[in-house]
Amino acid sequence: MRKLVYYVGVSLDGRIAGPGGEFDFFPQGDERQAAAYSAWMNALHPETIPTAYRAAVGVADAPNRRFDTVVMGLGAYRPALDDGITNPYAHLRQYVVSSTLKPDTDPAVTVVPGDPLALVRDLKGEAGTGLDIWLCGGGRLAGTLLPEIDELLIKTYPVVAGTGVPVVDGAFDPTVFDVAERTAFPNGVTLTRLTRH
Predict the structure, then answer these.
(1) Which residues form the Bacterial bifunctional deaminase-reductase C-terminal domain (predicted)?
(2) Residues 115, 101: Cα–Cα separation, whole Å
């Protein structure tokens, strides 16, 4: 069965974005460190690079390695829309969970106004794809989908945000995950892969 994997960048205090949705405060290190970190991450998950930027980072023709589908909330989709991009991940099947987004925003993007749990359960049950589902964000959607999250890929950045969008924003529901692997980078970022206990 396909897995739902929440792959996201997080501050030390558990924020995936600032109070206005900003995410440009995550430190990347010096130029050399940032380049090495980006190259490693882009090679690991090239499909998580928005289509418009894939050529610039050298992954334009890279096949999808881990994911063939992305699920995101309106907050995660909004930065692309603000830049006039309605189809940010043309190389993936795209689902945006939103009760306010128009369903005809882009023919390549499926707007899901209702139950995201039912959507994810249907996607997980699909046969024949072989690749997993990327939960791109945001925090409220992750809180709703917590019962279906099989794996976490958390990029922890060495910064405290103070306030903003939490990594998971939902009801009190302690859910244990086991650390499967952890990689530390010279720029201070740590990538941790956790699997549901």
Answers:
(1) 3-189
(2) 15
Beta-strand relationship, 132-137 and 109-112: unpaired
Q: How far is it, in rounded angstroms, from Cα 168 to Cα 10? A: 11
Closest Cα to residue 183, out of 174, 192, 175, 195?
192
Distance CA 117, CA 165 (A): 21
Q: Mark residue 43 as left, alpha or beta (left: phi above 0; alpha: psi -120 to 50; beta: remaining).
A: alpha
Written as one letter, the residue type at 98 is S
Contacts of 65 (CB under 8 A, 6+ apart): 44, 45, 46, 47
Cβ burial, residue 86 (10 Å; 0-12/13-18/19+): middle
The span from the CA of 41 to the CA of 77, in Å, is 21
pLDDT digits (tens, 9 = 90+) for 43-78: 999 999 999 999 999 999 999 999 999 999 999 999
Q: How far is Cα 86 from Cα 106, in angstroms, rounded to an integer?
A: 6
Q: What is the DSSP letter of 56?
A: T
pTM of the model: 0.96
Assign 3-state DSSP to the chain and report helix, strand, coil percentages, each to 5. 25, 30, 45
